[in-house]
Amino acid sequence: MDYNKVSKDILQLVGGEENVQSVIHCMTRLRFNLYDNGKADRTKLENVPGVMGTNISGEQFQIIIGNDVPKVYKAMIANSGLSDAKAGQPSSQKKNVLAAIFDVISGVFTPILPAIAGAGMIKGIIALAVTFGWMSEKSQAHTILSAIGDGAFYFLPLLLAVSAARKFGSNPYVAAAIGAAILHPDLTALLASGKSISFIGLPVTAATYSSTVIPILLAIWIASYVEKWIDRITPTSLKLIFVPTFTLLIVVPVTLITVGPLGAIIGNYLSVGVNYLFQHAGLIAMILLAGTFSLIIMTGMHYALVPIMLNNIAQNGYDYLMPAMFLANMGQAGASFAVFLRSRNKKFKSLSLTTSITALMGITEPAMYGVNMRLKKPFVSALLGGAVGGAFYGITGVASYIVGGNAGLPGIPTFIGPTFVQAMIGLVIAFFAATIIAYLLGFEDIPSEEDEAPAKGEAAAGEIIHSPLKGEVKALSEVDDATFSGEVMGKGVAIEPEEGAAVSPVSGTITTVFQTKHAIGITSGSGAEIIIHIGIDTVKLNGEHFTVHVKEGDAVSPGDLLVSFDMEAIKKAGYQLITPVIVTNTDRYESIKPVKTSENVNVKEALLVLS
């Protein structure tokens, strides 16, 4: 993959650098906050080599890349003026409260996940070493390694403070100072002393802030407004001293008196609520969660559950949400493995095996978007496989005991605890349940290149392309668009339509339905790739006056209605209706000859002969 080219293409197709408020990446996705999501061309983005799909979650525009996303991100930052400095600029897009909350949680947690994942793995390794007697809990090595593993979690408010400040557009170092203040050893000891505590006559509620999430998020959110307000009223010459001083003096006491206890209470209730659900309806809850977690991952909102997972571990010592994510990932891996077993397409077979292994490692997007969703039935099988594993977990009460950032085989240490054996059995069940279901359900295989495209002058010899429109046939050279008249896209003819309906010219499959509805791509049963492009520059209508009657993947026969359009409205809007009918894989044929030229044609009449 040419990372420089891919990054430049992506940046251009999201509306250019001027449309980007901020961009970060997680393990598989570029996550944009755009000023206007409508300026991003999703159809063209999904055709960029290396892009597996796009998604809009809340107001965040996501581009799924897979394992190469860090390299694409690095190339994008290197080749543009984008940086973290743009992260706090306001977006012009309207968003609801729930979408805003999800966007904040995702934006705050994504940058710190590597630290949490690394620390979580170290804690898992320590637990494994102690369990098997490889290390004594009283050894100095244990003390040092425990500090490495616990550090990120104990001082989690510090990490979150910096990340949240960048998201809210405030000074990250002042935010870190706020986090450091509420974690100060002397203050921690005072809050834990059991004494009555007050600050200038106001009562301070005793609370524990280490390893917490919500208190610091609320504190930095308030700090972002306080800092901006102080900055606005402070003379320029005094900003350097006054703004951070008064921000700290206001926000830290407010956090200790009101925000911190409130955040701790909210966090406790979230943990209690989740645990109550699993304790009283554990079987049903785990089946539903494990069976639908892939859908949550598709939206990118699984990061919104991270605070609850962290609170569960901090408050109770165990968590039920992370195991469900493991099962969902095993389901995706199993379904993709079934495709590897059944597919006859050598290239797709190889892709299926590769993505299955990647999903086992906890990165599911390549399997999900590149294989399972593409074939539909395997994706359903993956959900069912996760649900079957969820039933086993629900019965046996499997939980995770360490927070890890990877829900795949490398993250297995997160299960080290009383239900470790059951956890391993459940992962195997989810994988093979999805494999068996996908294999038995079957799927419509992806044709190999040899199957889908005839050799030049052989299988396609004499193939007839029928007219999709009623109207007057014209040569492509008469089309007022150099792309068509110069046969850049391929050979064919144009039709000046008399009726506002286009039908299928062949028996085949719909391969492309343009988002703007003005063009349809079809692949015939013999391999001819045809585009029907209604009008010139009608893409600018953004779908207005067009109604599409098919979707990608539909099988069609000659005469099946594809798209209807309001001819008068389109003409009134100032656009020509002349419609090119192009064979885009022209190079596969010896000749493409019009049956009629400069005369009228009816739908389903012979239009082109391919040989």
Overview of this protein structure:
With 611 residues, this protein is of the alpha+beta class. The chain folds into 4 domains: 93 residues, Glucose permease domain IIB (Gyrase A, domain 2, 2-Layer Sandwich), CATH 3.30.1360; 173 residues, no CATH class; 155 residues; 157 residues, Glucose Permease (Domain IIA), CATH 2.70.70. The chain is built from 19 helices and 20 strands. The strands form 5 sheets. It has an 8-stranded antiparallel sheet with strand order 15-11-12-13-17-9-8-19, with no helix packed on it. A 4-stranded antiparallel sheet has the order 1-2-4-3, with helices on both faces. A 3-stranded antiparallel sheet has the order 7-20-18, with no helix packed on it. Helix 14 crosses helix 15. The longest helix is centred in the middle third of the chain and has 61 residues. The protein is globular and about 95 Å long. Its EC number is 2.7.1.-. It is an enzyme of class 2 (transferase). GO terms for molecular function: kinase activity; protein-N(PI)-phosphohistidine-sugar phosphotransferase activity; protein-phosphocysteine-trehalose phosphotransferase system transporter activity. InterPro entries: Dup_hybrid_motif (IPR011055), Glu_permease_IIB (IPR036878), PTrfase_EIIB_Cys (IPR018113), PTS_EIIA_1_perm (IPR001127), PTS_EIIC (IPR003352), PTS_EIIC_1 (IPR013013), PTS_IIABC_b_glu (IPR011297), PTS_IIB_1 (IPR001996). Keywords: Cell membrane, Kinase, Membrane, Phosphotransferase system, Sugar transport, Transferase, Transmembrane, Transmembrane helix, Transport.
